[in-house]
Amino acid sequence: MTLMILSHPNFEQSIANKTIVTELTKQRHDLEVRHIYDLYPDYKIDVTAEQTALLKHDLVILQYPMYWFNMPAILKIWFDQVFTYQFAYGSQGDKLKHKKLLASLTVGQPEHNFIVEQNFHLMESFLKAVKASAQYAQMDYIDPIFLYDIATVTGHSKIQIQTKAKAHSQYLNTLINTLIDPK
Fold first, then answer.
1. Which end of the chain has fewer CB atoms surrounding its CB within 10 Å, N or C?
2. 17: nearest Cα among 109, 86, 104
3. Cα–chain-centroid distance for residue 170?
4. Is Isomerase included in the keywords of this UniProt record (predicted)?
């Protein structure tokens, strides 16, 4: 089964993330979505509930919009509080070992804004902490996927963004199938 940790502070106003989650839940009845902003508007994470959810799933998807070249604040708090000693790391902290972690981000700007000289992609730098955290917890880090250029301020219509988000959702569903049933 697959767990999605959804971290969007304005989900009801979202176009891309809302479309991705809506479409993916239509395709996958085995998907558990935990919208941590809805669950913890006071930022007081129920660590036991989150760890229990992690234990039930083999694949964990982090779905969020990139905020100031990073994850939304509540997702960082979620990591800090849920990935605890003797759960995610430590001499007996192997509870997440071999679970897969996949980041799925939406980014308002076009992809070319994140490529610098010699095709170095800045997103690799922005996600180093996520990758290191997954590896420290003995998880299998899956290369992240991105949905770029989805801001309405750049002139994209709601329908254009939804179309791109539906394609992202389809790709994500295909990737999930590959990851949880690699035949």
1. C
2. 104
3. 15
4. no
Which domains are present in the chain? 2-180 (3.40.50.360)
Over its length of 183 residues, how does the chain's per-residue pLDDT go in tens digits?
899 999 999 999 999 999 999 999 999 989 999 999 999 999 999 999 999 999 999 999 999 999 888 899 999 999 999 999 999 999 999 999 999 999 999 998 888 787 776 666 787 888 999 999 999 999 999 999 999 999 878 778 999 999 999 999 999 999 999 998 765
Residue reference for tokens 């980014």: 107
**Closest C-alpha to 133, from 68, 62, 63:** 62
**pTM of the full structure:** 0.94
- Locate 68 and state its tokens: 């100031």
